[in-house]
């Protein structure tokens, strides 16, 4: 046999030839035994039943009607109606027509308990709550959001906890009492709410957590949520940086654990509503306002879908 110049001769390996005269093929490699399928964990996305709603307060100084229009256009699951000086917000039939026209359900009613709404519906705070309950029942809303009384509403404050329980026992509508904050001016602090601005200090069936309010109160939001436990029935999602003013920033623009709260809700199967309640008064145009509200919705949906590892069966 001849080899090319300087080429090393190729070494021939002996091949076992069976009696059939054909070369034996190498045996295929052994496969590892399969693991039990029940022990393999796969990441899945768990999304709670909670709906994401737009508070009509989020479009101020625009109207209640504008809030329905924007909620429909951006894909919110519903709205929370802030009952205030806009006559439409006080009119059950007008609200029903807006809901039907835009195909946007009303998920919650915020009772008129702000300083600027002291004369809306009535000057009697109990009548305000009764009318909020009636509105919720007629509009198909599951929740009435209410603030604790102002300290100067002395009789109302004394009876508030027992009164809320009494009303809650008369209806399927949830009365979710919202955490507030001390009022501050420079280095002075005023306790404006009674019995307490920290509503977890009292016994209520359901709570609303507002993360802009926890920022203004400079309290630990995670600890407050822990104290609320399974009585947390409603969420006002907004952000804040601890200013003396109640900021209501778009979630993710402040220091509050907005993402962590949403992920917790997903893991615990939260069945209440998550309401975007942000301040868009500084928006220079309707397009800028909608961009902020679209960003808030995207943030909420992203973090409300929690990836968890669940064993396959």
Short descriptors:
313 residues, alpha/beta, TIM Barrel, 12 strands
Task: Provide an overview of this structure.
This protein is α/β, with parallel strands linked by helices. It has a single domain, classed as Alpha-Beta Barrel (TIM Barrel), CATH 3.20.20. It has eight helices and twelve strands. The chain has helices spanning 64-74, 92-102, 125-139, 154-168, 211-217, 221-228, 258-268, 286-304, and strands at 41-46, 51-55, 78-82, 106-110, 143-146, 174-178, 183-185, 188-190, 206-210, 232-237, 273-276, 306-311. It starts with 40 loop residues before the first strand and ends with a strand.
Strand coverage percent: 15-25%
Helix content: 25-40%
User: Could you tell me the number of beta strands?
Assistant: 12
Tally of individual domains? 1
Which secondary-structure class do the elements indicate? alpha/beta
CATH class category: Alpha Beta
CATH topology: TIM Barrel
The name of the CATH superfamily reads Divalent-metal-dependent TIM barrel enzymes
**Radius of gyration over alpha carbons?**
30 Å
Q: Identify the strand order in the major beta sheet.
A: 2-3-4-5-6-9-10-11
The biggest beta sheet reads:
8 strands, parallel, barrel
Q: What is the mean pLDDT?
A: 88
CATH architect. name: Alpha-Beta Barrel
Please state the overall shape, judged from the principal axes of the Cα atoms: globular
Uncertain runs are 1-9, 13-21
What is the rounded distance between the termini? 64 Å
The SSE order reads: EEHEHEHEHEEEEHHEHEHE
Count of alpha and pi helical runs: 8
